[in-house]
Amino acid sequence: MERILMIEDDLDLMEGVVFFLESEGYKMDRAVSKREGKEKLLGENYTLIIMDCNLPDGTGFELCREVREYSQIPILMLTARDTEMDEIKALELGVDDFMTKPFSLSVLKARIKNLCRRRENISMINSNGITIDKCKGKVFKEKEEVLLSAVEYKLLVYFVENREQILSKEQILDWVWDQDGKFVDDNIVSVNIRRLRMKIEKDPSNPQFIKTVHGMGYIWREKK
Q1: 166: Cα separation from own chain's centroid
Q2: Please, what are the averages of pLDDT over each run of 10 residues along the chain (224 residues)?
């Protein structure tokens, strides 16, 4: 059964949407604040998040940014303001769809179905016996879960999604650490790659997946 978390402080709207979607066969969980939403996301696995743009203790934009640090779960954002800037900001942060209140429940249902179909197509990545479940933010090696830090997870996803391409330290820094323009020492790249190799390579001292290309950077090699 598809399980959806709705994060919304308008209780009347929440009740209406939850009642409708449960009658359509979805399992619904509720949160009325950013804090409560984060707690539920850490404790459960969801198919999709419906979140309001404005919450009592923060914004949906902030929560979306935090969720995208570790998961690609589909996010449908709701807003009471029909402004282009809100929609642009939401999409740039990784929101998958955007609806302005008031909205049709039938249209909401159709968009949820579309996001769930899309999730099935892009949520799993496989390479060299490593499986990445992007929606749950989990990694498995030969079906055994590998526990990674948030940085190690982002590194692994970046490498696998760019397999057989040389990635410079600068590219890795920009993608994994420096997206907000904060300075990070480039030694942190080699330190975290070493830690990641310890967890996914059979022989970390002679890595077969993440190879060093001297003078250029690193590359994820796909075993034939």
Answers
A1: 24
A2: 90 96 94 93 85 92 86 88 79 87 93 82 80 85 90 91 89 74 70 95 94 94 82
Q: Give dist(CA 202, CA 128) in Å, integer.
A: 11
In whole angstroms, what separates CA 185 from the centre of its chain? 25
Supply the CATH number for residue 104's domain: 3.40.50.2300
Domain count, the chain: 2
Final residue before a domain boundary, out of 122, 142, 175: 122
Calpha distance 46→94 (Å, rounded): 17
Q: What is the CATH number of the domain that holds 197?
A: 1.10.10.10
Per-residue pLDDT at 181: 46
Q: Is 132 in contact with 157 (CB distance < 8 Å)?
A: yes
Question: How many helices and strands (H and E) does the chain possess?
Answer: 8, 13
